Amino acid sequence: MGAREALPKYFAILEGEDIPNFFITRRIKLNFNENLDLADLWNIHDEGMDKLRENDLDGSGHKNLLDLKAVIADKILENCHLCEIRCGINRKKSIGYCRVKESLIASDFLHYGEEPELVPSYTVFFSGCNFRCVFCQNWDISQFRVGVEIIPEYMALKIERAYRFGAKNVNFVGGEPTPNLPFILQTLRHVNVPIPVIWNSNMYMSTEAMKLLDGVVDIYLGDFKYGNNECARKYSKIPRYWEVVTRNFLLAKNHYRAEFLIRHLVMPNHLKCCTRPVLRWIAENLGKDVRINVMFQYRPEYKAMEYPEISRMLTLEEMEEAEKIVKNMGFKNALVG
Ligand code: SF4
User: Fold this and answer.
1) Is the distance from the beta carbon of residue 96 to the nearest atom of ligand 1 less than 6 Å?
2) Mind spelling out the 3-state secondary structure of 248-284?
3) CA–CA distance, 275 with 270 (Å, rounded to integer)
4) Is residue 244 in contact with ligand 1, taking CB distance under 6 Å?
5) How far apart, in Å, are the Cα atoms of 167 and each of 26, 171, 293?
6) What digits encode the pLDDT tens for the residues 173-193?
C-alpha cells in the first residue's frame, strides 16, 4: 500500500486518464451579474455546485462556476473572512491580520523536497500567514510582507511553463494560501494545462473559503499540528484550533473528488497532547487508508528557544514512540520520519 492507493484520482490525472477538478468546474456554465450582492451570488454558486455534483455539463451561460467563485472571493476581500480569524479588514485598502493585502509571491520553483508522489512540485510561496507559529521554519516569508506582485494571467503562464518542464502539480503554500484565495482562483481561470491543484495549508479556512475550494482542490495537503486548543494558542496564537481544523477536514472529505495528504509535525514533548490525539482523530474520521506524513524534522527555529519544552530536536525515544503510535493505529499509507 502507499500513495497510489490513497490518491487514485491524482495518479489518474498524472497518467492522463482523468482531469483536475478546476477543469470540470469551468465547464459548469452559468449566467450571473457580478454586481449582485453576496447572498444572491452564493445562491447561484450553490446551484452551480449542485450541477457539478450531478455532472450536469450541458447548461448554457456566458460564464462558469470558476468565474463565479473568483467573483465571490473578490467580494469577500472587502470585509475579509477568508479564514477563521475573520478580521473583517477591507483588504482592497488595508493589510489584514495575516499581513496580506495584495498577493505577494516570495518565491516559486520546482520543489524536490516534498513527498515522493508530489515531486517535482511547482510550489508557489506566498508571503503572510494567519498563524504566528513561534517555531515557524518559513518565518522570513510568513511573518513579513515580502515578494513580488504579479498579475494572475502571468501566474497562469508560469504554471503552464512549469507543467511543460515536468511539474506534477501546482502547490499553493506560504506563509499560507488562504488569504490569497482570490488571486489563486483568478489564476486558475487562465490555466490551460491539466495540472492537479494542491492546497498546502494550515486548514484554518472559513466555511465560506471552504465552499469556494470545493470543486477546485484536488489534494488537501493539510497540516494537522495540534491535538488541543491550548497548544495551538500557546505556539501559534490561534483560537478554536481544534474545532476549526477538524471541521474543515470533515468538510473537505465531502468536497467534490478531493483527496488528502495530511502532514503532522511531531514536536518535542508533544506526543501525548498532540501526536496521539491528532492521529487518533484522523484514523477515526478520515480512515486508516488516508495518506499521512508524520514528520520528524522539527527544529527550534524563529522564537522557539523562548519555550524551553520545544527548544530542541526530537529524541530517538520520541521518534520511536511516534512510529509505534502510527503502527498501532493501523495506518496503511503512512510516511514516517
Ligand atoms: S485571511 Fe487575513 S485578512 Fe482575511 S480574515 Fe484571515 S487574517 Fe483577516
Assistant:
1) yes
2) HHHHHHCCCCCEEEEEEECCCCCHHHHHHHHHHHHHH
3) 7
4) no
5) 22, 10, 21
6) 999 999 999 999 999 999 999
CB-based burial, 227-239: b 16+ in 10 Å, e otherwise: beeebbeebbebe
Instruction: Give a three-class secondary structure readout of 86-129.
Output: CCCCCCCCCCCCCCCCCCCEEEEEEECCCCCCCCCEEEEEECCC
Say how many Å lie between the CA of residue 93 and the centre of ligand 1.
13
* pLDDT score at 1: 58
Grouping H, G, I as helix, E, B as strand and the rest as coil, residue 2 is: coil
Task: Take atom 3 of ligand 1 and give the residue whose Cα is closest.
Answer: 96
Split into its structural domains, the chain has a count of: 1
Residues of the chain below pLDDT 70: 1
Q: Judging by beta carbons within 10 Å of its beta carbon (0-12, 13-18, 19+), is residue 213 exposed, middle or buried?
A: buried
Which range marks the domain in which residue 255 is found?
3-336
How far is residue 29's CA from residue 224's CA, in Å, rounded to a whole number? 36
pLDDT of res. 58: 78
Question: For the domain that residue 167 is a member of, what is the CATH number?
Answer: 3.20.20.70
Q: Determine whether the shortest distance from the Cβ of 87 to ligand 1 is under 6 A.
A: yes
Q: Tens digits of per-residue pLDDT, 283-318?
A: 999 999 999 999 999 999 999 999 999 999 999 999
Other C-beta atoms lying within 10 Å of the C-beta of residue 106 = 21
Q: What is the pLDDT of residue 60?
A: 85
- Measured in Å, residue 146 CA sits from the centre of ligand 1 at 17
Going by alpha carbons, the residue nearest to atom 4 of ligand 1 is: 80
Ligand 1 site, residue 85, Cβ cutoff 6 A = yes
- At which residue does the C-alpha cell 473559503 appear? 209
**Cα atoms in the 13 Å half-sphere on the side-chain side of 269:** 9
